[in-house]
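Page header: ASSEMBLY MODEL / two components / 885 residues total.
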Amino acid sequence: MRLISLCVSLLLPTLAWAGSTPIRAADEQVSTFTLDNGMEVVVIEDHRAPVVVHMVWYRAGSADEWPGVSGVAHFLEHLLFKATDMLESGEFSKTVSANGGNDNAFTSYDYTGYFQRVAADRLELMMKMESDRMVNLRLDEGDIATERDVILEERNMRTDNDPDALFREQMRAAQYLNHRYGTPVVGWRHEMEELSLEDAQSFYDLFYSPNNAILIVAGDTTPEDVQALAETYYGVIPANPALGPRERPSEPPQRAERRLIYEDARVAQPYVSRSYLAPERDSGDQRKAAALELLSEILGGSQTAVLPQKLQYDSQTAVYTGAWYSGTSLDDSTFNFVIVPAEGVTLEEGEAALDRVIAEFMETGVDADQLARIKAQARAARIYAKDNVQSLARMYGAALTSGLTVDDVLAWPDIVDSITADEIMAAAAEVFDDKSSVTGWVMAEATDKEVTQ
Amino acid sequence: MRFLATLLIVLWAALPARAEIDIQEVKTPGGITAWLVEDHNIPFVALELRFRGGASLDDPAKRGATYLMTGLLEEGAGDLDSRAFAEAVESQAASFGFDVGDDALSVSARFLTENRAASLDLLRLALTETRFDADAIERVRAQVISGLRSAEKDPNDIASKAFDAMVYGDHPYGSPYRGTVDSVAALTREDLVAAKEGAMARDRIYVSAVGDITAEELAVLLDDLLAGLPETGAPLPGPAKLNFPGGVTVVPFDTPQSVALWGQPGIGFDDPDFFAAYVMNTVLGGGGFDSRLMTEVREKRGLTYGVGSFMVGKDQADLLMGQVASGNDRMAEAIQVIQDEWRRMATEGVTEAELTQAKTYLTGAYPLRFDGNARIAGILVGMEVDGMAIDYARTRNEQVDAVTLEDVQRVAARLLDPETMTFVVVGAPAGL
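Prediction written out in full:
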């Protein structure tokens, strides 16, 4: 089947390319087109070195799991390195490394991605293997049992051995009342222990199909070459008609401020963490998210930001303060703060200082010079970003699996550059609402409690 | 299987043979030597500086002085206090990174072509006119101490500290280069100034630059940047005397997953068997998902998420090390499997197929590293510090390809020693 389609595309390129012709974005190294079966393709050119990164992203992450099988998206990601019709278990990675390449995969709330970094002339081989495991995975019970132990050890390493990670899990679970973003990507341990072959197979059968996938190739290649190969290997896989629109449980109005106390003897440095539910980037509607991104830079993005200046420089209230927000998300995101109080400052005092600085900022507003510096850095970041096409590729993959388009990604820098101080303050006023917030205190047991109560 | 065989036959012949980058050696009138790759595709430069010695130059009574000093390099210089300096760097959209480890202090800079002069003025100030203001010292000191307190409860940090103390003893490598809460609390401004004089001198500097700049421009820039540094710095420590008692040492810590570090004597870059050892370690535990350790400990038994072995080439010591993390009830089995693999490699060496696979991987992957100005600059300065020839990138794959099965068996038998293999485990492991 594969051989036949290869011949067709060589003999009749115009026929095989009927899907759409590559569109090169003006002034950018990015092209995009869609295969007939619905698979989107993005090509990012960089001809400085004979290297390509080949990625396939699925619009399926942990937030697409059904209740009771948390962690199955990530479990399946591991299982994709097992046997297929064409390859033995482990042979995928072995073949990549035999060709001098590296490969890996990643899972998040909104996506699962697979990538290989290889010499440019190995691109066809990567497509051959990646398209095979899109539909030809052959799971067996032996693989399931061993790999389940591996993901449990991964959870041990990433989460159970790390009090900060355990606390973040509790924060998110409290932040999201209804959405699956409140469930950890790696899964809750008790559900991970019960994950079965059928769970993984069901997730695979529904979500792994070309109409739910995005191909991204970055590096020393051309859109024309990528299109020819993509038609040959991915274009022949039929779309999955069972795949419906991507709708997940959404958040109801949040009506009550939530407060957590997390105690763990392994905590050496007590701190306060705060998160607010915050809107995400939407296709064609990114201004509010851009304002929030700038807001996070203004408040806590660098040592000249408001929080460090007030709490670490003007006063020695904290040893560390930070603010961050990421708008690349399919559904509601969060805006976050952290303050690590200085020695002798209680968590209560630290939290009060954080609230005071935010309240002052809401009064005084944005410093024009600071905003100008942040925008200058954002403009420079576009130049620096060209140095690492793998990062660019990941940025496109995350955006396209979060409901955005290539046009949205291309428009983003200009949108950020055009945001006004008023828009930033309006976004802050909307997001900093106690009712949709979670505040957590992290401390070791006993001694810290005495200090804080 | 048939699929794999076909692919290998067709494609191996076409592997890129070597890294095609053009490295120029630039010697400045002021006596600085730098390696440069000119690439005018993107209007910025990545510049890397390394000062040999790093935190190992600490006065033993002032442990942590070089680390704290490094943290203050971006906290005010010349007429600019901490805030003014940071704002000036942001206005130029430049980025400066300062870091230090056991063997080197590193400066990683990148700056836009349009802002080159102003950016370099700021970097020069940071390197040569550091202020060490009292309030900045106290602020950074508090951050360092906070980090040290966290390290006391981090299983990986606890493991490294115990391992280093056991293996390196009184050598600077034997104690944490960030210092202790007590030693850092006692550091004075004079200690920091002295640490800077000792660590950041022209007699130990290595430079690489990649990007939108010519050799002539770079030479002028470097002389201007580095002229204000002292000619000579503090003496380097001598070689470390290594102590590997063997066996397993457990550091009790209440956490669900144990972490283990292990080590034994290694092999230096100047050893004729270095590349044989490198290939051997790739098969054993250094490669990707298909190393023997990954196969046996993870893929077959599910005992861990990650396990690996790696060659450690420090300036004053060569080690072969490894690490693994495994649930408390499974660590004993993981260590048993690792020890068995060590013995199997020592006695049986590798197979012809494994040798071919490892060499193909290593020679194919090497040229792929050289993409991007920042990545290349980092690789180049590392090559300089390690004393490699400027054409190393072109000859390295030939040295890998020249390794024979006999070379690997010889070095495996000579190097791998289950008796000196010394484990430190942090956690609550059962049966250890």
